[in-house]
Amino acid sequence: MNKTAWAGLLRIAALALTLASGQALAADGFELAQTNGCFVCHQAATQRIGPSFSDIAAKYAGKKDAARQLSRYIVKGTGPAGLGWQAEDKAMLPHMPGNSAVTLKNSLILAQWVLTEAGMATDKTRFVTHKISVTGQVRQPLELSIEDLQQLPVLQMKMIPPGSHSEEKPVPIIVRGVLLRDILEKAAIQAASPHDAKKSAILVTASDGYRVVFSWSEVFNSPIGEGAMLFFARDGKPLTDDEGRIALASLRDNSHSRYAKWVSMIEVRTLAD
Ligand code: HEC
Question: Which CATH number does the domain housing residue 156 bear?
Fold first, then answer.
């Protein structure tokens, strides 16, 4: 074995030791998941395009070498045949594409994080938000509680709850909330010119790291805007901790891909040329 290969092995051994000491790395796992786009498809406790991290952790509970196995899937993807999460109705894609930008070291940190911290996040109360902030390119940054949201134009809309299976006849619920458009109008998007404002993106972030993006034209200049809504009540009752207290839905989309619980922040970013 040559010198570099040894150095590599030693580094992995050193990493294994750090991983064994646990905790300190948890925050890094979260950050890596954020920077590598894992939350586009995964959430800690809720199924999205991919299975929830807690379902993955449960699948591997007590299995030896699980971290190594998962780190391989993370970098290389789960292969054309997939692992069957979709067949079990726990994913919306047949397999995970490779995340080739993730280094070996980071894939091990992510794997360990999925198996522990992220996967244990079944206690959803820790994600609950009671107010949202509106920040970024706005003239008037805001902090809005549910009571504050109720001072804005409130409307009710019909929604098919996410997670309804296609075979069942879906039962719509009535959600009560405020259009993203009205919140942004209160905060007033700041841009050098109206033309520049049109180039902004609106990022809605949830406290579990999930993120939903809208373009300015979708929100202000298309039917999507009439359904992009922050809601806080369903069927006349406040949302529960599990439902998010403050949640986001895009009711004019064809699918449920833009839906977030536990919304914590709305951020306006102007895209530079
Ligand atoms: C494009 C969507 C997408 C992205 C991005 C994505 N995943 Fe996945 N992931 C999936 C899907 C779908 C599955 C289920 C695959 C299957 O059944 O084969 C999956 C499976 C997994 C598994 C394996 C589950 C098992 O049974 O072994 C792990 C671990 C995982 N993802 C972690 C991650 C991490 C960490 C990231 C970020 C670096 C990430 N994923 C990014 C969609 C995605």
Answer: 3.90.420.10
